[in-house]
Amino acid sequence: MNVSVHRDVSENNNRAVTRGSHNQLLRDLLSDYGPPSNRPVANTSLAVEVYFRTLIVQVIEFKWKDEFLKWDPANYGDIDHIVVDSSLIWKPDLNLLENVSPGFVQRDDQPVDVFSDGTVVWYVPTITTTSCRVNVRYFPFDSQSCTLTFSSWLYDSRGLNLLFLNDSGASEDQFFENGVWSISVTAKAQDRYYPCCSHPYRLIVYTVHLHRHYQHYLFNMVIPAGLLSFLNVAVFLVPPESGEKISFAVANLLSAILFQQLVSEYMPPLGSSIPLLGIYFMFSVMASYFSLIVAMVVLRVYHTEESYPMPRILRMFTGIASSPKNNSDPVTIKQDVVTNAAVADASCSCNRTETDLVVENGRSSVEPNEWQRLAHRIDRCLCVVVCICTVAVDVYVVVMYLVQV
Q: Nearest Cα to 123, choosing from 205, 31, 224, 55?
């Protein structure tokens, strides 16, 4: 029991001695420190070397040597580290030059760690907002770069020399992946001259590289858009006599517009250029409009009355040979129509169905007229044209994306 009491008393005495030494150390260091605005160098012609590091979370780390905060640990109970209120000592006035936040949040009242050799370490939690030029031309395979420039407002390179705390000067180890961006940071130091001053200011420039994860957009936007664009070619493959050409073209157009509206919510609304994917969607909608208009023209040509003669210029341009009926005068054409109607009535009286009139022995007994041949020829020609344009646009977009990646 006596041993335990003696041990408690001994520990209390040691704590009292340590606390007294700590208080005496603070009084000795700060009694003749001077105003915090004075740079902590004995020779004012020398610059304070401030080591700087940014952690891509919310912390900025500073480290420098304060010549007025040195002591011998042996004289103060082997104390080699103390915590000092940051308002009592000098601190570097570093600021983000690209800061655009009106409510700039920076906890510069955090205490600093001071070591016996004069080393001061200061961790500043801060939230900053900066502006960056965004290039979304290659969305969703784009990568963005943001520049963060830190410098002193007051001291040029003669009074404050900025250095990196380590080789990289920045760390993204504490950055949490969010599924949209991957991040990498590069840093460099440079000097900048201003018109007001003859000496340069030391700058620390961080370049934050943001690489977008494109897998989600590839399988939900790019591939479906490519498949949808080839449906424009299928419109020309539907025969006019099927009766489904217009409905298919309208459904294809509505699908393209609806898909464009859905994916526009994912595309960046701002940027210095139009995204290639947006141009591709615009081409897809325009091709759908073109397919619908052509389908209407083809059906109008296909259902033109046979009695209406094709203009000679159109026949020469399309290479369609004229039929004997079209070379006859209108009276002869009218007589042929009446005769054909009478033959059809006689055939129906013999218990022959409409299918028997059209198809006989597996072969068509009614040859397509010149207007119908023209409609089929328009379909074939425009099918090739639209297919070539679609493939050309697809290849162009793919090549541009591959160059970027």
A: 55
